[in-house]
């Protein structure tokens, strides 16, 4: 099923007020992102090396992903010989997690022309190396393809429980925001770097990701207008809607350890909606309220936005997107760019990135970047 330019609800027609509200929402969101930061330091770069043995925080270790291998690729027989690979760290703040690992693939070219770039974000328990098939495919078509390790993943993890332990610690201490917001901060800092590079057009930077990475892409695009085109995959959802409609279980199951810890601390015999609300408010303040999808999806307008979900995804229930879609349609309509917003819910698909989703995202970037 494809939904585009439908389900419009009435909102204020005062464009000036809408613009102020969008700016205020971004300002409020960045304020929350800053609230649990280690001391900021000047952005700097440290050279790195290819990761020989990437850390995946799941067993068995994933080996092959058909959907990513299906990404459209230019027919270049000696592609790997023509690829330029960069491995480095952006130092964004003090502390271990302030060292952001970055992997970039692009074609070796001598004309030094500025090119469009796309940032790719991995799913839970994966890492940037998992995204290499996508990076190679986009690079073959002339993009600068960028991937990072999310907080407590990949090179930012030391054991298979690093991410889980960080989530529990966030609940206990309210000192970090490892589920979503800390990586969104990293993506703002990444944009600082990408927009200064000689090989990237600062006005043509896209962002996409799968699952956890889809959520990161959504929030980064909402927070930072330098991400000119967005295509989050199986990530956009309504957190408060899921609580209100008793559809929170699948999302909770994906990071259950922190909810179990909270259940115990709150003296509950089982995880219920109160536990869920308190966890979200503690580890990602505003996630199920002022920064939820009904508010952050519309402010991506007028920049091109493609939302790709499975129609039967229990982690991102499609019913929770009715209000965000309606409000976004209104925003794009008033910006006179309805063709820049599209939602596709693939029939019969649960929480899974498919080859058709990868192709749709690829086409979206080819069209708008």
TrEMBL record:
GO terms for biological process: proteolysis. It comes from the Eukaryota. It holds the Pfam family Peptidase_S9. GO terms for molecular function: serine-type peptidase activity. Residues 137-320 form the Peptidase S9 prolyl oligopeptidase catalytic domain. Coiled coil: none annotated. This is Esterase. It comes from Actinidia chinensis var. chinensis.
């Amino acid at each position: 099923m494809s939904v585009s330019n439908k389900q419009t609800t009435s909102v204020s027609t005062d464009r000036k007020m809408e613009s102020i509200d969008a700016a205020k929402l971004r300002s409020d969101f960045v304020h929350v992102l800053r609230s649990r930061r280690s001391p900021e330091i000047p952005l700097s770069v440290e050279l790195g090396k290819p990761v020989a043995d990437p850390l995946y925080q799941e067993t068995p270790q994933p080996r092959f992903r058909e959907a990513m291998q299906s990404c459209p690729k230019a027919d270049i027989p000696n592609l790997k010989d023509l690829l330029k690979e960069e491995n480095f760290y952006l130092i964004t703040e003090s502390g271990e997690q302030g060292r952001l690992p970055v992997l970039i693939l692009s074609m070796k070219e001598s004309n030094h022309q500025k090119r469009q770039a796309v940032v790719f974000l991995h799913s839970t328990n994966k890492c940037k190396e998992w995204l290499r098939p996508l990076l190679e495919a986009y690079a073959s078509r002339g993009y600068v393809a960028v991937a990072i390790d999310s907080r407590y993943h990949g090179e930012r993890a030391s054991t298979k429980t690093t991410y889980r332990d960080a989530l529990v610690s966030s609940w206990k201490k309210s000192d970090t925001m490892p589920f979503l917001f800390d990586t969104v901060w990293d993506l703002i800092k990444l944009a600082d770097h990408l927009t200064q590079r000689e090989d990237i057009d600062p006005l043509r930077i896209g962002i996409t990701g799968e699952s956890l990475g889809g959520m990161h892409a959504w929030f980064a695009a909402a927070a930072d207008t330098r991400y000119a085109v967005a295509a989050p995959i199986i990530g956009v959802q309504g957190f408060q809607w899921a609580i209100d409609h008793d559809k929170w279980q699948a999302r909770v199951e994906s990071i259950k350890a922190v909810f179990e810890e909270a259940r115990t601390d709150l003296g509950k015999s089982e995880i219920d909606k109160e536990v869920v609300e308190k966890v979200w408010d503690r580890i990602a303040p505003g996630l199920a309220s002022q920064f939820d999808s009904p508010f952050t999806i519309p402010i991506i307008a007028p920049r091109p936005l493609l939302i790709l979900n499975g129609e039967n995804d229990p982690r991102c229930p499609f019913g929770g997107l009715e209000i965000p879609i309606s409000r976004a349609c209104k925003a794009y309509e008033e910006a006179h760019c309805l063709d820049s917003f599209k939602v596709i819910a693939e029939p019969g698909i649960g929480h899974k990135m498919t080859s058709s989703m990868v192709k749709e995202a690829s086409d979206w970037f080819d069209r708008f970047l």
